[in-house]
Amino acid sequence: MIKERILIGIPGLDEMIGGGLIKGSTTAIIGTYGTGKTTFALQFLFEGLINGENCIYISLEESEENIYEKITDRGWDLEKYKDKSLFVIKLDPTDFNLSINSIKNDLPDLIKSVDAKRVVIDPISLFEGLFDDQSTRRREMFRFIEMMSNLDCTLLLTSETEQNNNYSSRYGLVEYLSDTVIVLMYIRPSDLSEVHTALEVVKMRRSNHSREIKPYEIQEDKVNVYSEASVF
């Protein structure tokens, strides 16, 4: 059976994952601060917007104004999409009941009502942090991912890395629950010269993918992954 794919919209990365994400799958982008997780997520949504798809961005960290400003700074026509095909929602992670109910109960209804095909939660680690213990966190995250998999959309989650492990998400869960895991990292040469950013596709279910570490660059209006280059 041929798996239908959708492009992330990042040259080089789509080639590394065999021509795009599998439609309806869940992807986790994991990285430390400053590696561009939000930019990757926005690029994923923009690819959907220019192809006529409705998209939802759930922010648990930055305000709606900041997200809209980032979109405008990248030269994208915000007014063409805002509240028409792009819906940005800010949730307060300090309000436990509101955030839990919004993500578990309101989000599925919103996805269905606007027929959203791409959904981003940035960062999912703040949602995970709402649960006091690991067993509850694991159970609730499993239920959430299962719920999302039954909806007609492709989900992208961002997560900070665990403090002492650049390949692990903060709570070590999303990489096991996601179909595709992309890790963003800094590469520091031994001669302490200029620091570079690089990524690795560490996991992709139901698809072949590149296992090489490749450099990437965030430019003013796009992200480029140099799939033919080497970081060493």
From TrEMBL:
The keyword ATP-binding applies. Keywords: ATP-binding, Nucleotide-binding. It comes from the Archaea. GO terms for molecular function: ATP binding. Residues 4-232 form the KaiC domain. PANTHER family: UPF0273 PROTEIN TM_0370 (PTHR43637). This is KaiC domain-containing protein. The lineage of its organism: Archaea, Methanobacteriati, Methanobacteriota, Stenosarchaea group, Methanomicrobia.
